[in-house]
Amino acid sequence: MGKHVVCRVDEIDIKMGKLVHVEGRDIAVFNLGDRFAAVSNKCPHEGADLCAGKVFGFPEADGPGCYRVSDRLMVRCPWHGWEFDLETGRSYVDPNRVRVKPFDVSVSDGAGLAEGPYQVETFEVETDGKYVIVEV
Amino acid sequence: MTDTTELVREPQSKPEQKLGLVDCDIHPALSTPGELGPFLPLRWREHVREFGMRSPNPLMGALPYARIGHGMRRDSYPPEGGPPASSLAFMQEQILDPLNIEYGLLHALNAGPSVMNLELGAAVCAAMNDWQIDKWCSKDARLKGGISVPQEDAEASVKEIERWTGDDRFVQLAIVPKSLEPLGRKRYWPIWEAAEAHSLPVGMHSAAYGTHANTGAGWASFYFEEHYSFAHTAQTALISMIFEGVFERFPKLKLVLVEGGFAWLAPLMWRMDREWELRKGEVPMCKRKPSDYVRSNVWLTTQPMEEPTKVKNIAHVLKWLGPDKLMFSTDYPHWDFDHPDRVFKVGLSPEEKQGILRDNAISVYGLN
Amino acid sequence: MTETDTLERPLTKVLPGAIDCDIHPRSPKLDDLMPHLDAYWRDMLPERDIDRLELTTMPTSIGSWALPGGTDGVQDAASLGKSLLDPTGVSAGILNLVNGVQALYDPYMSTAICQATNRWLASDWLDRDPRLRAGLVIPFRNPEAAAEEINRYRDDKRFVQIIALAMGEAPLGRRDFWPIYRAAAEAGFALNIQPGSIYRASPTQSGYLSSLVEEQVHQTQGFASQIASLLAEGVFTEFPEMKTVLAGSGAGWLFGLSWRMAKDWRGARVEVPWIKDSPDDIIARQVRMTIRPLDAPPDPADGAELIDCIGSPDMLLYSSDYPRAHPDAPGTWPAEIPAEYAAQICKANALATYPRLEVTP
Predict the structure, then answer these.
(1) Sign (positive/negative) of CA torsion B81, B85, B88, B93?
(2) Which of B177, B283, B277 has the alpha carbon at shortest distance from B234?
(3) Using an 8 Å Cβ cutoff, are B183 and B157 in contact?
(4) What's chain C look like in SS3?
(5) In whole angstroms, how far apart are CA C112 and each of B292, C19, C139?
(6) Minimal CA–CA distance to A70: which of A54, A85, A48, A82?
(7) Do B216 and C302 make contact, defined as CB atoms within 8 angstroms?
(8) pTM surpassing 0.80?
(9) What per-residue confidence (pLDDT) applies to B11?
(10) What is the average per-residue pLDDT within B234-263?
(11) For residue C101, is pLDDT > 80?
(12) What is the pLDDT of residues C176-186, one digit of tens each?
């Protein structure tokens, strides 16, 4: 298990995702506005890239026509719209059998990263930047 | 073959070997609404500008059963802009090359067949056909067109079919199942006659709007219902064409039901046979058991692939239907796209898979 | 019903003591209804030629419709006993009247005739044979009055369900009809959907079909659309205690619907977020189907696979669909349904479907 710097925070627009490669894995990283989340990139259903999906609040209803949006954040697959919980990786429609792997994500500023134990393989870290860290 | 899908397993990103395949349902799009203009005679351009293009869709330029995610694969927007599947280069990059598509059959969805002014409808269909050749088929030989016809006017439809005689860039006739009358009725027979004479299978693709309510009890409320009801339009066309004797009169006519699902067909065959046994005196023009005509004249495309919770039940359906009736399709760039490497959750023999992915379509459409 | 002494293998006849969930009495004539009408309608109806209420889509008078002798067998309670109930040995039979009262446009005329029809069913049928039960005929064009009619029969448990048509006034899930379902659910009525159209809309999305045989084949679309509507609009989840029974639908087609709805729910459920379980599960829980006719594979050995595709044997109810003509005689056990399911399909499933149905053992 290592911590990997995968991108600058401003490389991902709010509610959108980005594909990163860490230790041979394809990981979709999402900007949730106040924090980041990451899950394995391939949708287990038909293999779409979840990084191309969009992050939504979770629509629920107490009865027909009584809609509300809960703060549970989900990525909706860019093809068939299956929803995956960004905290647990579980799908809404079949949470036990259909899920993706979630990864821990944090944000750190460049100055702290110089001291390790972070793996910075692909790019220069600037001390005044903010970076997304994925634990794999 | 197991009861549970293996969806939890992390997928292999590369399949071992790519089989050439035929995609029986790709939807090319106009980059801009004006892109069709140059293919329309001036008279009709002016007509559309002054009087509009009236169709049974109650909304102008939008679908009353509002789609979700615009009804598109969210990753199918071309980087250079424009709607999904409006760029040949991006279509090549996103599906034709990576999926090793040997032939991609275009269904250029358009209002022409449903426009209420029949002459305008004929002009729109003709323009869509010219546009298919100009923008797609002449630029990439893998892409094969479907001749769009103003199907409520059989005479004009036959004229449009004859305009393309001998042009093998068109491999089928594009018919919408939401017709004014059931498609087995005589008013449509000149179209079936021409299709048979020109060896053009009839590709019948579900359509978003039509003249009649989408359930026998009136209009459904939700897209969730409307989307399912597409299957019914295919069923109705099939029932009508069989019992009205279309395949008896045009025995070489091929009917391909596109994007209507396929799980329903086996039970419908059983039901048609039973009811025909009871009442065949009413329909002497339907001489054989209805399921016989399905066996000899009808095929279906696979998308949207049936996905029962118990995966093994697909095997029963394939047994009842016969895997030779199915032809693979992606429906690119629509949201319910099927991927050839991932769509078959149930075990198929290599021959069955090769048939569904490629060989059945090669033979039905006479490709190669 | 004792299983041990009656189970033949293969089973060829319905088990004795079964509950027949779909029998069609003749439609009442004006003379039958007159004693049950109020003064206004007693004056009015004879003037307005409302006598023969026969649906074009359910043409009971045409030659090919009924079994030989079938029309005579449903003239009255006595003839039904002799022609069907005694020979098949059933413990109870549910009368489902499908006639043209559904097609009337005048909501008050429709209400008056429904009320009179129910009284006639009670006095001329239910009172005369203790084995008989019935579906209540209600005016879908007047939902308030329909709910009142249901409440009126709350205590008469011989009425076990309400009758709707596969292609009636409007998609059955619509909120306009919820007062009906509220009353039905509270009193323990099931919702019974019968084949037929009243031509409010054309039966197909491509207009009217040329032949009766096509229309019969096509009925499954009406049923499927109604299930889709009840599901999508939330009736199944709002009124979970009310089962929906599809009568004479063919049953075998169901998985073409339930698989597709389940698939689309996974991707499009955000449109209908009140649906919280997979539609195939909801359908298996809420929907029941009678077994005659049965859209079944040519090889009876495939029957168990068909039932697995449909969902489960819990969803099936024994029926004769008498007096409609089918290839085999009423009371014949369908070769496609494995004998081990016979006990539940003949009786237990019906008792679980109809909370109002009480049968003396």
Answers:
(1) positive
(2) B177
(3) no
(4) CCHHHHCCCCCCECCCCCEEEEECCCCCCHHHHHHHCCHHHHHHHHHCCCCCCCCCCCCCCCCCCECCCHHHHCCCHHHHHHHHHHHHCCCEEEECCCCHHHHCCCHHHHHHHHHHHHHHHHHHCHHHCCCEEEEEECCCCCHHHHHHHHHHCCCCCCEEEEEEEEECCCCCCCHHHHHHHHHHHHHCCEEEEEEEECCCCCCECCECCCCHHHHHHHHHHHHHHHHHHHHHCCHHHHCCCCCEEECCCECCCHHHHHHHHHHHHHHHHHHCCCCCCCHHHHHHHHEEEECCCECCCCCHHHHHHHHHHHCCHHHEECCCCECECCCCCCCECCCCCCHHHHHHHHHHHHHHHCCCCCCCC
(5) 49, 30, 9
(6) A85
(7) no
(8) yes
(9) 42
(10) 97
(11) yes
(12) 999 999 999 99
The C-alpha atoms of residue C125 and residue C155 are separated, in whole angstroms, by 17
Instruction: Categorize the per-residue pLDDT at B10 as very low, low, confident or very high, splitting at 50, 70 and 90.
Output: very low
Residue B18 has pLDDT above 90, yes or no: no
Res. C272: pLDDT tops 80: yes
CA atoms within a 13 Å half-sphere pointing along the CA-CB vector of C190:
29
As a whole number of angstroms, the distance between CA A49 and CA A31 comes to 16
3-class DSSP state of B164: coil
Whether residue A59 has a cis bond before it, omega within 30° of 0: no
Q: Are B115 and B53 in contact (CB under 8 A)?
A: yes
What whole-number distance in Å separates Cα of residue A29 and Cα of residue A51?
7
> Are B282 and C63 a contacting pair, CB within 8 Å?
no
**A contact test, residue of C230, C263, C270 with most A CBs within 10 A:** C270
Mutate to test the interface with B, among C214, C237, C294 (most CBs of B within 10 A): C214
Q: C251 and C311 in contact (C-beta within 8 Å)? A: no
Phi, psi of C328 (to 5 degrees): -120, 170
Residue of C nearest to A77 (CA): C267
**Kind and range of the H or E run holding B298:** strand B298-301
Residue to mutate among A56, A58, A76, A92, with most C CBs inside 10 A, is A92
pLDDT band at C10 (very low <50, low <70, confident <90, very high): confident
* Residues from A in contact with B at Cβ < 8 Å: 26, 40, 42, 44-49, 52-54, 76, 78-81, 94, 97-99, 101
Q: Is the pLDDT of residue A111 over 90?
A: no
The amino acid at residue B178 is: K
Q: How far is C309 from chain B (nearest CA, A)?
A: 6
Q: Which domains does chain C have, with CATH numbers?
A: 26-353 (3.20.20.140)
This complex has an ipTM of 0.96
| Rg of chain A taking only CA atoms, in angstroms | 16
- Other C-beta atoms closer than 10 Å to the C-beta of A49 total 18
pLDDT per position as a tens digit, C18-64: 999 999 999 999 999 999 999 999 999 999 998 999 999 999 999 99
How far is residue B232's CA from residue B211's CA, in Å, rounded to a whole number?
15
What span, in angstroms and rounded, lies between the C-alpha atoms of C182 and C160? Answer: 15
How far, in Å, CA of A60 to CA of B262, rounded? 32
Give the amino acid at C289.
M
Instruction: Give yes or no for a contact between B330 and B95, defined as CB atoms under 8 angstroms apart.
Output: yes
Phi and psi angles of residue C289, each rounded to the nearest 5 degrees, phi first: -135, 140
Bridge pairing between strands A3-8 and B255-258: unpaired
State the pLDDT at residue B347.
84
Q: Which of C272, A48, C271 is nearest to B337 (CA)?
A: A48
Q: Which of B224, B235, B279 sits opposite C213 (nearest CB)?
A: B279
- C-alpha C355 chain-centroid distance: 16
Chain C environment of B232 (Cβ under 8 Å): 204-205, 221, 224-225
* Band of residue B83 on the pLDDT scale cut at 50, 70, 90: very high
